[in-house]
Each structure stands twice: as structure tokens, then as C-alpha cells.
Amino acid sequence: MLLALCVSEGSQTVVRAREINQLELVTALGVDRVNTEDGTLRVIALGNESRDNSPMLVETEQQTMAQAVSQLRVIPEQKLFFGHVGQFILGEEAAKQDLGEQLDFIARDISMRLDTDIYVVKGGTAEDLIRATTSQNRTTFDYLRDAEDDMLILPISYPFNTGEVLQQLLVSDGCALVAAVTIEIQEEPSEGSNQTESSQGNDGEKTQEAQGGTEREVEEKEKTNSTPTPVARLDGYAVFRDYHLAGYIDAEDAPGVNLLLDKLRNDYVVVEGPEGGDITLKVTRDKTKLQPEFEGDTLKRIVISVTASADINEVQGVDNATDPSVLQYIKQQLCQKEVALVEKTVAQAQMLKADYLGIGEKIEIAAPAQWKKIQGDWKSLFPTVPFQVEAEVRINQTYDLSIPVEGDHAEKENAQR
Fold it and tell me: Among residues 100, 114, 255, 116, which one has the least CA distance to residue 175?
């Protein structure tokens, strides 16, 4: 009876139910800053498929995220459903605005989810990224999901979600890390490019003419027959200070950030042998420890301890990799690299004057009484506090391969025999 009364009175509290086939599931939202003066936003919604079986792209320009999403809900023929948004993509100009304002809508709107991953387009716009990497078969959403899976293999960028970024902002006084993404152009063979297969002569060998020219000419032909394809790729981190974009951490430096955030477990490190050659180690890290050292109420330094173990994964140009003296040399090389990695990571954070590594939070846990006395000055104290980095490593597996599986070494061994 109450439902009937509400409908008869024209109450807006009743929302008409829709069948699932009447809804368009939005998987990603892109946000760009159009006008730097009044803060106008361009919001683009990416869906799985529209009625012509191609990914749906709908955009609008509004003053706030709430207005934009409300407008997007009535633009297409099929009504948009935002409960499945898995990615929130900020263009660089939008990231320069107050990040808290951008995330406030996600945190408040009941149709959005706090586990939505956040990305910043490094040097570009969200619209360019979404349109460039969305085609008939693949979308930006698909590429970024694949990149997230690759994080388990290649530790470039950890994708933080809305809840994690909000926690960073609150705990670190406006500092946070967000995964950065760029547009990478890949060359893919065009259809029909394999139709120039070389034929074989009477003797069964391919002639240079059958191959289509010299090796260089063949390579040039393959380039000509290839099609440039834009792909979304993770590219380090965007750093926020005081809720605004302050800079970037490049992909090559991201492993150090992941290490201090305890998100880097396995990695590959190349060290040199005592007489040259390369040894590739598969390194596994334990939890990194941080210990502040006080004299009274004065913070004198912070000691960071890294513990790691490694397996010899590949040997090139080193004859006796399992010799105890060589193993000791390898350990020293790995220790130096671990220390250098952490020192560079801390130096970058201090240069940006942003404690996105959560150093202050760890000090509070280790020494809560002393932290209360320096907490108010932490912003000015962090860029100048001394750090000391220590590393302890051990070599676990050598697989008892004292002689590398290489042609030159095999010949030497046979000659000695």
C-alpha cells in the first residue's frame, strides 16, 4: 500500500527496476580537466559492449563528478550501471587538482566501489588513453587488467584502489602514490603480411630472391606491413603531495618503492662475477624493517634493514659460480645493490618532500611517545632526516651447476679432460 501511495504521489524515492539486458555496464571512468579556471571536468564512460557489439564510449562536461555521472545515466538508449566500475583514470591536468575532491564522489556515491583501481595518465589525458587503446576487440580496461596481472612477474607499478589511496592521504597528511600509465605504440603484423612466404628451390634451400631480398630488406618489408597499435602500459607511479600531483617515479625506480611498501616479493637482479661475466639472481625479500633512533626527543636517524635470499638463476661467463669465494663475492654485490636501491628510493621521496613511503606511520608504530612530539614538524623534518640502510642476504640454491651450460666453457672442459 505504501509503495502504491508513493507511486501515485509521484515520489522520486522509487526507482523503476530494469532488466539486466536493459543496462549498460560501465567498466572504467576517465576524468580530464577541461578548464583550469573554473575546474570544468570532462568525464568519459567506457562500457563492455554497445548494441553494435563494439565498446561503448559516452562523455559529458560538467562542473562536478556527481553532475557528470547523473548526466551520463540519461544519455544513451541503454541506462548506464556504475556498480561495476573497476578503473578510475585521471588525466594529468585533472590529477593536478585536489585528489581528495576527485575521490570524494567515489567514497560517497552508493553506486561506486571503494575497490576501484586508480590510474594517472602520465603526460596525457584520460580521453586520449581510452580512445587510443579501445578498439573492436580490446579496451583500456582489458589492457590495464592484463598489466595488473603482469605485476606479479615484473614489479613496475602496484595498482592502488580508492580505499588504499584515501588511507594514504589521511595517514600521510595528503601524500599518496597512484599507478601511472602511458600509451605505448606496438608494431603488429598487418593481415596478409605473411603471404610473402619465400618459396624453395629445387634443392630445397631458400634463395635470397625467394626470401624477398637481403635480411635488411626483409626487415624493412616487415615494418612496412606492420600496423602501429596503441597499448596501455603501467609506467611507475604518480606522486601526490598536499593532495596535488607533485611528480612521477619512473618504472625503473618503482621496484625500490614496492620494496619499502612491502609489495615486492620476487625480483631478478644481475650481478658481476669476480673476474667478469654476469650472474642473474632470483631475489626473494622478507619484510623490510624500519627503526628510528632518538636522542631524547630528537630524531637522529632512521635505520632501514632489508633481508633477502637469492637463487642463482642464470650464469654467463663465470666458470666457478658455486665456489665459496665466488658465492661470497656475489653476496657482497647483491648487498650493495639492495642498499643502493633503497637509498635512491628514499632520496627521491625526500627530494619531492612527500612521505608517500609511510615513514612517519612506521615511526609512530615503533616509537609512539616520541612521534607525538615530532608529528607536527614532520613535513619539514622528513626531507632532511638522515637514513642508514643495511642489507643482509643469503644464497639458497646454486643447483650444483659449477660449470655454465655454454659452448666455450664446454670446449674448455673437454680439452682439460
Answer: 100
